[in-house]
Amino acid sequence: MATRQTKWIVRPGRIAAAVAVLGLWITAAFASVEGGRPLQLEVSINGEKTGLLGAFLQLADGRLAARRSELAEIGVKIPSSGSADEIVELDVAIGGKFKYDEPTQAIDFTLANEQRIARAFDATGGPNEKLPVQTSWGSVLNYTLFGAETTGFDKRPLTFNGGSASLDGRVFSPFGTLSQTAILGTTTTRDLTALRLDTTLTYSDPESLITYRAGDAISGGLNWTRPIRFGGVQAQRNFGLRSDLVTAPLPSFSGSAAVPSTLDVYVNNTKTYTQNVPPGPFQVNNLPLVSGGEARLVLRDAAGREVETTLPFYTSARLLREGLTYFSGEAGLPRSHYGTQSDNYVEQAFASASVRHGLNDWLTLEGHAELNANLYNGGAGAVVRAADYGILSVAASGSAYQGQSGVQVYAGFETKLFGLSVNTSTTRTFGDYNDLAAVTAPLPSSLLVLNLPVFASPLPPKAVDRVS
């Protein structure tokens, strides 16, 4: 459980040491306030001890003051903004809603919920300690063998129809991983065929979460773009290097407890989280929920009294958490006839880039660009959480290719209805819209002979509608 950081926790065996250490620091911190006397007071809010010691200053006229950051750490919300080191007078900041007990060196604040900073709890347990990455030398070979033979009903001898071996070999080291995939086979007409699939050198940096590739790869893309296979170089953000990293924004729930209570969170009638909460406002962040539905918050005090709140929510992996950025950039030669020919690269060098950025937990911005000698293609989009009922996606892109231009628009919506996940999207192109997949895809020779360009056109479809 991750909670607000505090400077001091009241423990009888440590108060004397805490006071001694804090004395010099507080004296220096308040030296600029002439005639002020530093105080270290045990803090209570609405009669409930918080277990904290706060650093205060008694001015020459007897009024009390404190640093803005100190008040925030003990849970007191100051309405106006200012620097963390600013010294504010309590009478001015909270209107005298406190009581200073000089004999016991304690202070008790009388505050409404809106005057308090909510106690925050992290349902994921807070950030996990990253384990050191270990690398070594080695190799591995995965294989799948297949063979076929036939016989007739008239008890004729078995006839061998051929076999194949799908191979996936890797050699790994601290400098990266070299991988090779291929298919070896034999048929009734040929003794042996060898088909190379992908040859790639990969290096991943766990600190920057970036994976670098050289060789055969697939370009990065978004829901409204068409990735291509290519041979070249690529740099791509890889969140999979951190298994503990949650990239989607998770829902948060808040409330207030009058007395020490226990909070139970039920999602679709299944209890997913339990937390003891102190009196006052609280907020539970990062509940591990990955779809939509209803959440019930049940607050139960020591006497067994319950307060129940039902809240709808919706979250999706299509949204990025605030501050996270995904990107993919690549350059090289497009590859064609993958899976049927080993080395067929289109001699049209290209470059492309895709980016997604979580501007905040309800809005993710997207962008994409493609370029080769004759093509310019670029677009932008956004993924928006529509309240707690679904995710709306919109995007638009344009292209210019050999004097032709066109536009593509995209819209999609996903939600959850009656326990079913519903996804809808529509894509429309106008004019002569082109992308890399269109301008670098050669037509199969068999279709050219049959003169069927309509059915073999690599251009983006004029309209695509999906419902699932």
Concise description?
The chain has helices at about 15-30, 70-75, 90-95, 435-440, 445-450, 455; strands at about 35-45, 50-60, 65, 85-90, 100, 105-110, 120, 140-150, 160-175, 175-185, 195-205, 210-220, 230-235, 255, 260-265, 270-275, 280-285, 295-300, 305-315, 325-335, 350-360, 365-370, 375-385, 390-400, 405-415, 420-430, 465. The chain is mainly β and about 475 residues long.
Question: Could you walk me through the main structural features you see in this protein, from its secondary elements to its overall organization?
Answer:
With 468 residues, this protein is mainly β. The protein is 9% helix and 51% strand. The chain contains 6 helices and 27 strands. Strand 11 and strand 12 form a beta hairpin. The model is unreliable at 1-32 (pLDDT under 50).
How are the SSEs ordered, and which strands pair?
Layout: H1 15-29, E1 37-45, E2 48-58, E3 64-67, H2 68-73, E4 87-89, H3 90-94, E5 98-101, E6 106-109, E7 119-122, E8 138-150, E9 159-173, E10 176-187, E11 193-205, E12 210-218, E13 229-237, E14 253-257, E15 261-267, E16 270-277, E17 280-285, E18 293-301, E19 306-313, E20 325-334, E21 350-360, E22 363-372, E23 375-386, E24 390-401, E25 404-417, E26 420-431, H4 436-439, H5 445-450, H6 453-456, E27 463-467
Parallel strand pairs: 1-6, 7-17
Antiparallel strand pairs: 1-2, 2-3, 3-4, 5-6, 8-9, 9-10, 10-11, 11-12, 12-13, 13-20, 14-17, 15-16, 15-18, 18-19, 20-21, 21-22, 22-23, 23-24, 24-25, 25-26, 26-27
